[in-house]
Amino acid sequence: MCYQHCFDYGLVSPFRLRCSTWEINLPTGVALPAGVALPTGARDQDEAGRRNPAGKAKGKAKKSDSNQPTDNDLERIFLWDLDETIIIFHSLLTGSFAQKFGKDPATVLNLGLQMEELIFELADTHLFFNDLEECDQVHVEDMASDDNGQDLSTYNFLADGFNGPSGGGAPGATTGVQGGVEWMRKLAFRYRRLKDLYNGYKCNVGGLLSPMKRELLLRLQSEMENVTDAWLSTALKSLLLIQSRGKCMNVLVTTTQLVPALAKVLLYGLGDVFPIENIYSATKIGKESCFERIVSRFGKKVTYVVVGDGRDEEFAAKQHNMPFWRISTHGDLVSLHQALELDFL
Q1: What's the CA gap between 108 and 89, in Å, rounded?
Q2: What residues in the chain have per-residue pLDDT under 50?
Q3: What is the pLDDT of residues 273-330, one digit of tens each?
Q4: pTM for the model
Q5: Where is the segment annotated Disordered (predicted)?
Q6: Sign of CA pseudo-dihedral 335, 336, 342, 344
């Protein structure tokens, strides 16, 4: 699917918005969405980036370089929520999207159910969700210390005796119980294989699907773009613009369990935007703790900007004194891209 849509924003004159000690230049006609929080102290983090604007990309987003900036080069990290921020999914199933935006409830629900079926089919068939559902991790590398580096090219995952949290083990084995060395090693193998699959198919998820399912996915992508008024492609404009900057990074923090979250990212065509190392699941520990992990990883000299639709990420952003950009409508996504395009974020 091609997301190279263009918007004509016209000529605008900037004005300065002050909030605590953080300043953002916003153009006339670009409004902060309701609920945006710009906390005290963020301006100090931002000064380094303003003094060295070489990594900023003006104008339309360019095709990003495949190389991610190193952690030491980073100046700004955008922490994104997934559902109802970048993609529309959960609200299709609950009916809230149809009600809020005046869409046909039956059509919207049907799209959501079909996408849900694809997500769990991919997760169960290829991403070990049957094994990992009860062994959920926050990050794909969380089991790496239990991995002995064994070659997995001929490893038989179906016959290794791993049966999820109950362990089980092969007949006669005594090390297959949950928490045992052997069991943990097998669990780590699954997460390593999960990482390899994600990296191998992040730009070609169709390679994991049957021809019939590939056709279904293409149809669902097209129909969802229509019914959501190009929500995903509008969000992608901001994601790609951030990715094109030399010293910025997109990180995903979702309340979905890690394996289905990876399936969503692949099926919605976001695999090239979010390296698997930049995807965190807050299911077990919550978003505030996820943010703590991310700050520990990248450091406190980086400016963090949180983009989301819910109270969880808004509260977590407030706790960590991070700016929060609320996404409630399609217009909020457009305004976000305008602010990014004009270098005000």
Answers
A1: 10
A2: 1-31, 33-66, 166-175
A3: 999 999 999 999 999 999 999 999 999 999 999 999 999 999 999 999 999 999 999 9
A4: 0.79
A5: 41-70
A6: positive
User: What domains can you pick out in the chain, each with its CATH number?
Assistant: 18-122+210-341 (3.40.50.12350), 128-201 (no CATH)
Whether 343 is catalytic is: no
Marked catalytic residue, from 83, 131, 147, 332? 83
Binding residues for Mg(2+): 81, 83, 309
**CB within 8 Å of 167: residues ≥ 6 apart:** 176, 177, 178, 179, 180, 183
Name the phi and psi angles at 6, rounded to 5: -120, 140
Q: Which residues are annotated as a binding site?
A: 81, 83, 309
DSSP 103: -
Encoded tokens for 302: 């980086």
Q: Residues 247, 265: contact at Cβ < 8 Å?
A: no
Tens digits of residue pLDDT in 203-243: 999 999 999 999 999 999 999 999 999 999 999 999 999 99
- Both structure tokens of 271: 């695999």
**Ordered DSSP codes for 3-65:** -----------EEEEEETTEEEEEETT-PPPTT-B--TTHHHHHHHHHH-GGG---SSPPPPP
**Contact 293/266 with Cβ under 8 angstroms?**
no
Furthest CA-CA distance within the chain: 75
Please say if 44 is a catalytic residue. Answer: no
Identify the CA nearest to 282 among candidates 248, 310, 301.
310
Q: Which own/partner contact pairs does 107-116 have at CB distance under 8 Å and 24+ positions apart? A: 107/227, 108/227, 111/220, 111/223, 111/224, 111/227, 114/216, 114/220, 115/89, 115/220, 115/224, 115/267, 116/89
